[in-house]
């Protein structure tokens, strides 16, 4: 699996792509692959606050329901509405399918996230592959 080098990653398998103080948040290819066919996504509303390391929603697959953890603290500015009717887009291309757009409150939080190489190493240690 490849992980975009310009993204930052959490150990809970979320990614964030940041442009200035704006962030796009999604789940990693590893996460969608582990979950299997995603059938439902529960996301916050525009204007909601998210907090680094705290749950902001969930994804439901045919196998399980999994919590989503925010990589940063901020305010939700947009939610990917297409996922309500087509959550399988995440399975098709997890790296390109964002869930939330967030105004990042504290850019320093990004320093605590994993680089693509570190995330790949973390996944291989977690899975033993």
Automatic annotation (TrEMBL):
Source organism (scientific name): Edaphobacter modestus
Family in the record: Belongs to the GcvH family.
Q: Which GO terms describe its biological process?
A: glycine decarboxylation via glycine cleavage system; protein lipoylation
SUPFAM superfamilies, per database record: Single hybrid motif (SSF51230)
The organism's lineage is: Bacteria, Pseudomonadati, Acidobacteriota, Terriglobia, Terriglobales
What does the annotation say about its assembly with partners?
The glycine cleavage system is composed of four proteins: P, T, L and H.
Under CDD domains, the record lists: GCS_H
**Positions of post-translational N6-lipoyllysine modification:** 63
Its GO CC terms are: cytosol; glycine cleavage complex
Q: Which note does the record give on the cofactor?
A: Binds 1 lipoyl cofactor covalently.
The cofactor named in the record is: (R)-lipoate
Classification via InterPro entries: 2-oxoA_DH_lipoyl-BS, Biotin_lipoyl, GCV_H, GCV_H/Fam206, GCV_H_sub, Single_hybrid_motif
Which protein is depicted?
Glycine cleavage system H protein
What positions does the domain Lipoyl-binding occupy? 22-103
Per the entry, what this protein does is: The glycine cleavage system catalyzes the degradation of glycine. The H protein shuttles the methylamine group of glycine from the P protein to the T protein.
Name the UniProt key words of this record, in alphabetical order. Lipoyl
Entry annotated with the keyword Transcription: no
């Amino acid at each position: 699996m490849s992980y975009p080098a310009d993204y930052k990653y959490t150990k809970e398998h979320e990614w964030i792509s940041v442009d200035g103080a704006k962030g796009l948040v999604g789940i990693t290819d590893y996460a969608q692959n582990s979950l299997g066919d995603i059938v439902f996504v529960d996301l916050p509303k525009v204007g909601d606050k998210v907090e680094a390391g705290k749950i902001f929603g969930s994804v439901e697959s045919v196998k399980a329901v999994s919590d989503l953890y925010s990589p940063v603290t901020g305010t939700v500015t947009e939610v990917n509405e297409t996922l309500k009717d087509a959550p399988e887009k995440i399975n098709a291309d997890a790296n390109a399918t964002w869930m939330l757009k967030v105004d990042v409150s504290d850019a320093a939080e990004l320093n605590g996230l994993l680089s693509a190489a570190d995330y790949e190493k973390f996944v291989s240690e977690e899975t033993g592959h």
